[in-house]
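User: My advisor, Dr. K., asked me to get a structural model of this assembly before our group meeting. I'm new to this, so sorry if the format is off. These are the inputs:
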Amino acid sequence: MAADSRPIKQKTFTNILDQYPAEKRYILAMMQDVQGEYKYLPREGMQMIAAYVDVPLSRVYSMATFYKAFSLVPKGRINFKVCDGTACHIKGSNIIIDQVYQYLGIRPGETTPDGEFSLETVNCLGACALAPAVVANEKVHPKVTSSGIIDIIKSYGGQINATSN
Amino acid sequence: MKIRIDQQEIDVNPGETILEAARQNGINIPTLCYHEAFGGQGMCRMCMVEVKTAHSTNLVASCTYPINEVIEVHTSTPVIEKARRTIIALLYRTAPQSEFMKKLYQEYKCVENQLEINENERCILCRLCVRACEEIGSSAISAILRGTEKRISTPFDEASTVCIGCAACANICPTGAIELSQTPAGRTIWNRTFAVVTCQRCGQAFATREQLDYIAQHTGIKGSESKLCDDCRKKNLAAQIEQYAQ
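Assistant: The format is fine. Below is the predicted structure of the whole assembly, which you can bring to the meeting.
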């Protein structure tokens, strides 16, 4: 698991929570905002939400782990979303996922130890005509080939180590 | 209101669940996730019965079905028996390590299914432990993750700071799924070890320090009374009553 190196900006949590009344029904929205700010859902964020809304931490944790949209581990500086919808899957998205594992050593849901890259799969980006599609942060890379993904990793400053496995 | 359960005419209060009405009248409906203290949860579906209304016939979970109209209920028909066998077979596959589920599986003469076995599991995810913990007021555990990965645990799988080690979760669990070890050195549950307090009279280890503190805080019971185990406290009370009676 990547080190939690980025400092937790306590103030931002408070800012986010202050936008909502302290009611149970806003927990999900709060978690989404916290994740929007930090690119993942930090432990302290869940603890603060639980204390603010006055529900047990176990309930908040239960919700956070239920939804796939929440990541409890920090995302990398560059987050690759590899589409694994039907069209992209048929067009070989699994090869892209394998390539990323081969060159960066991460599987879906993981982050490189240096915190540079993270990988996740999504069920459909709605860009089936561009299959297989990869989104790096906000940028869409269409029709990615097995060698194309290496160029993409390089373009974001990734060290391609041919000997790594 | 009068309804019929298995040909028997029964008087019920509107809003009462079928399960409650049946049990009050000596009609047995098997359950797994039901406990009188909490009411129906509708988790395990063991209590399925056939309900005939004016318009339709449906299979419903009797523990969560409130009686609001005149209905006819059947608790044992071939359709229900089959549904029950399927439920048990599925749950047994989920928790094959549970002796309780194995016995149930054999008792109901369930048929083999091809589903993948969850090797080391004893939990059927009935959530009775979660409810018990919630009622006590700790809420240290909850159902985490989703789908096939779903399980009961503490936040981050770590020793919980709010757990008082009362072991209500382990005691209420129908399938014996919650690890609990008790030695004179301490009680270990949910990755945390608690110091145990022994009964002043009989010396039996009966509670954790945190548990007694919690009880004192919420009920005001403290002092010498809280230093006795359940059995000794009962004996104490009986002796007191005897004294008054004389």
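One thing worth pointing out at the meeting: Residues 37 and 132 of chain B are 9 Å apart (CA to CA).

User: Perfect, thanks a lot.
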